[in-house]
Amino acid sequence: MPTPQQLSLSVSLNDDATFDNFYAPEGATNARTLALLKAQAGGQGEPFIYLWGQPGVGLTHLLQAAGHEAQDAGLSIQYLPLRELVGFAPHELLEGLEYLDLVCLDGLEVIAGKPDWEEALFHLFNRLRDAQKHLLVAAVQGPQELPVALPDLRSRLQWGVTCQVQALSDEDKQNALRHRARARGLELSEDVAHYILQRVPRDMNELFCYLQRLDHASLAEQRKLTIPFVKKVLNL
């Protein structure tokens, strides 16, 4: 039976989560956020970044992409999905993370209002700051709206740079779907992308899950992504 610390170290990153396949139109807010994250993941830039946005905008993708980028730069990282780890002892789980170059905490909202977690996170924040290491966190609310009870932690969460990840318009979602398809080596025409977007839930996580199904089916059957083929695979 692994200890909580051993469990945390076993958390792996999704291979598909990269900065290159995150669609951020040039000049838009998300593009500026992406530049900040790339700098931090490279060991430069802001020591503390707080990301927030509604579910489905890609917070988990960005945190895992930062982890991949840092690893590629030869840095040590730890990504922790707090939704999966909230039941463990936080002091044990967060112990020693200040020796890493980058710590990514995903789903901060799940620990808000939990005294043991808030205290452990407050101390981790201080240890990372003293060690001059980098911290990246994500939540569905901004730092002022997050229902954190510990005043010292609440103030710490407002120290760094706060970036809201913006939801995409329908046109941008269509472009994002085509962008991700190209990253997978798939040719997804504008007409087919529009057809998909009009018939499935528009949450980006679900859209990319549909794209993954299409990728596997296209490879297995050696078929291009036409509207009839998409209709058949996705039962639309």
Which characteristics define this entry?
236 residues, Rossmann fold, 2 domains, five-stranded parallel beta sheet, 48% helix, 11% strand, elongated
Describe this structure in words.
- Strands 2-3-4-1-5 form a five-stranded parallel β-sheet, with helices on both faces.
- It is an alpha/beta fold.
- The chain has helices at residues 4-9, 29-41, 59-72, 82-85, 90-94, 115-130, 151-157, 170-183, 190-197, 204-221, 227-234, and strands at residues 48-52, 77-81, 102-106, 134-139, 161-164.
- It is built from eleven helices and five strands.
- It has two domains: 4-164, Rossmann fold; 170-234, Helicase, Ruva Protein, domain 3, CATH 1.10.8.
Helix residue percentage: 40-55%
Question: Low-confidence parts, pLDDT < 50 over ≥5 residues?
Answer: 1-8
| Largest β-sheet summary | 5 strands, parallel
> Could you name the CATH homologous superfamily of the largest domain?
P-loop containing nucleotide triphosphate hydrolases
* Structural Rg: 19 Å
Provide the residue-averaged pLDDT.
Answer: 91
CATH architecture of the largest domain: 3-Layer(aba) Sandwich
How far is it from the N-terminal to the C-terminal residue, by CA?
A: 44 Å
What order do the strands of the largest sheet run in, or round the barrel if closed? 2-3-4-1-5
SSE order, one letter for each helix or strand? HHEHEHHEHEHEHHHH
The CATH C-level name of the largest domain is Alpha Beta
Strand content: 5-15%
Number of strands: 5
Rough outline: elongated
How many helices? The count is 11
CATH topology (level 3) name of the largest domain: Rossmann fold
Question: How many domains comprise the coordinates?
Answer: 2
- Helix and strand content put the structural class at alpha/beta
